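Student:
Attend to each token:
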Amino acid sequence: MDILRRSLLSLALAFLVAGSVAAELERTITVASTTSTEQSGLFKYLLPKFTEKTGIGVKVLALGTGQALDVGRRCDADVVFVHDKATEEKFIAEGAGLRRYEVMYNDFIVLGPKSDPAGAKGDDVTAALSKIAAAKAPFISRGDRSGTHAAELRYWKDAGIDIGAIKGDWYKDIGQGMGPALNTASATNAYVLSDRGTWLSFKNRGDLTVLVQGGKRLFNQYGVMLVNPENRPGVKAKEGQAFIDWLISPEGQRDIADYKIDGEQLFFSNAQAGGRP
């Protein structure tokens, strides 16, 4: 009888644990996001605050923006949080997402060796890239369809340069995220385009320094979108929308603005301003 009682008790406990795990999984969303939100440390700071308030856990897939949007198209995430407005708007137009919300911004910067062999320093990114190309100075491209890579390609085009036609040994397309791109640039004393947030959190700087910053073209807006639940019933629309609502709320916006490294703010919240700085 005791054996039967223990067996029944063990079975009951197993059901309780299974039910608890299932409930926990049900309250966890997947966010496909650009690498900069992860590698800058923002999510490590931000997500526990959201979970504490709502009880909703967040699993992050840190990818280039293009890859993150592809994950959203496959409905393998509930929310997409990225930074390339043109491709985000296309994502919405395709019916892959329901609505785009602007959340925060920072800026892109061009980094390079302190000696600046191409003479790129200034606030005009297209002039800087023209000088880098003319000098055939080493340049590291992420080449990963990320928001940063998309911005880089726009800047080459704005400079009147067909990078596909002229790139040679000086232009290295590594097909990796921002962290590896910065490490490669640091190791080879090369130029590289970065978002400021990842740069501020980056430790292996070597001889790299900020050479180009401040121009209007370097503005870097982040947007967040709920994956369209009509495309797959498993999308956690309620929990995903709760995450979005928190990000754009006064509380979420304050927490984003409060994230700093060595006293320097990495991201500037602007949802309440309609996406304007």
